[in-house]
UniProtKB/TrEMBL annotation:
Belongs to the methyltransferase superfamily. METTL18 family. It comes from Mycena maculata. This is protein-histidine N-methyltransferase. Its main location: cytoplasm. Its EC number is 2.1.1.85. Keywords: Cytoplasm, Methyltransferase, Nucleus, S-adenosyl-L-methionine, Transferase. The keyword Nucleus applies. It is found in: Cytoplasm; Nucleus. One of its GO terms (cellular component) is nucleus.
Length: 354
């Protein structure tokens, strides 16, 4: 198990410093795909949420997104019988992950319940692209690899929900853990829709104020996930031409799925996924196979160095340009398009495939 202390904690609890790598041998999670209807059925009757402020570069206004509270996801698991507060959650249980969301257990849990800094950096960069072209993301096929809480994709979907485009747009979110998609990622997408003008008609139809909290992401609150809300969300997704896909499991499995006929993408995003050097070849192969062509926008956001595990951009670039990747047809070059040097250095690299 390894724990990073570079994270955004929505519960405002500072984690104690810890660096420890587990020597346990674990079995990889199986590959799975989830439909929109499956994830709608997995939602609890009500979720609580808090604001996630995102500081932008230059003079642009900051952005605030609404995100589900971790304690609320924990309560959902307990209420569904996945644990008991009188019992100690196991280190590889979903409850155990929620108790220590920044602990990483390779092959078991990869930190997806936590919102990490570099995902916010991606939002900063993507918002700048939209400044240049407000319709930039509409009509694209978008994949977020190792999405976790899904903040970059949640931001993109929120922007689409705020507009009137109905151009077909496909968004695929992948995380190693299915529980992350169900407990955090998908609820955050629901919140992105609810906090947008697209939910106005639904909100106007609700007479009970307890079922219709203010559509203000700067406020904390609770949102009842009623059948009528789910229907309104589904209708809005269709109206905007959005198709959503979700998958979990190892990167190798998604790469195989894409190679066997899965569609490629115009935009491929990933953040905080290069910390394990042994996983870099699989990640790079997936990124390459997922890109439609050399014109695809492929962005990798990460820290310059991950202390304690040896990963970072130096190792990533070395693997990207290695003979192994050349032989596999997956080599490339990287250009820094965003950088922050204060504190622990962070970068966003745009990958160009050779």
């Amino acid at each position: 198990m390894f724990k990073f202390d570079f994270c955004i904690d929505n519960d405002n609890v500072e984690a104690p410093p810890l660096e420890q790598i587990s020597s346990d041998v674990v079995q990889l999670e199986p590959f799975a795909e989830f439909s929109l209807s499956q994830l709608l059925e997995s939602l609890p009757p009500l979720i609580s949420f808090s604001p996630l402020p995102i500081r932008l570069s230059s003079d642009r206004k900051n952005i605030t997104l609404a995100c589900r509270d971790l304690f609320d996801a924990r309560f959902q698991l307990i209420s569904e019988g996945h644990g008991d507060e009188s019992e100690t959650p196991g280190p590889t249980s979903a409850l155990g992950f929620l108790d220590s969301p920044s602990d990483l257990v390779p092959g078991v849990y990869e930190g997806g319940l936590k919102t990490w800094e570099c995902s916010l950096d991606l939002v900063d960069y993507l918002e700048g692209l939209e400044d240049l072209n407000p319709a930039y993301f509409s009509g694209k096929r978008i994949l977020e690899v190792g999405c976790g809480t899904g903040i970059p994709s949640v931001y993109l979907l929120h922007r689409i929900f705020c507009g009137d485009s109905n151009t077909a747009t496909h968004v695929h979110l992948q995380d190693y853990n299915a529980s992350v998609l169900e407990l955090i990622t998908f609820p955050n997408i629901i919140l992105a829709w609810y906090m947008s003008p697209s939910s106005a008609e639904y909100r106007a139809s609700i007479s009970d104020p307890t079922e219709s909290p203010p559509a203000d992401p700067t406020l904390s609150g609770e949102l009842p996930l009623t059948p009528s809300l789910k229907s309104a969300f589904t209708a809005s997704v269709a109206k905007h031409g959005i198709s959503l896909a979700f998958s979990s499991g190892p990167w190798e499995s998604l790469k195989t799925r894409i190679e066997s006929g899965g569609a490629v993408h115009d935009i491929v995003l990933t953040s905080e996924t290069i910390y394990r050097t042994e996983a870099l070849p699989a990640l790079i192969e997936l990124l390459r196979r997922a890109c439609a062509d050399s014109k695809s926008l492929c962005l990798v956001a990460a820290k310059v160095l991950y202390f304690g595990v040896g990963g970072g951009f130096s190792e990533f670039l070395g693997t990207l340009e290695s003979k192994t990747m050349v032989d596999r047809g997956c080599s490339g070059t990287a250009e820094a398009v965003w950088e922050r040097k204060v504190g622990v250095g962070r970068k966003i690299m745009r990958i160009s495939w050779v």
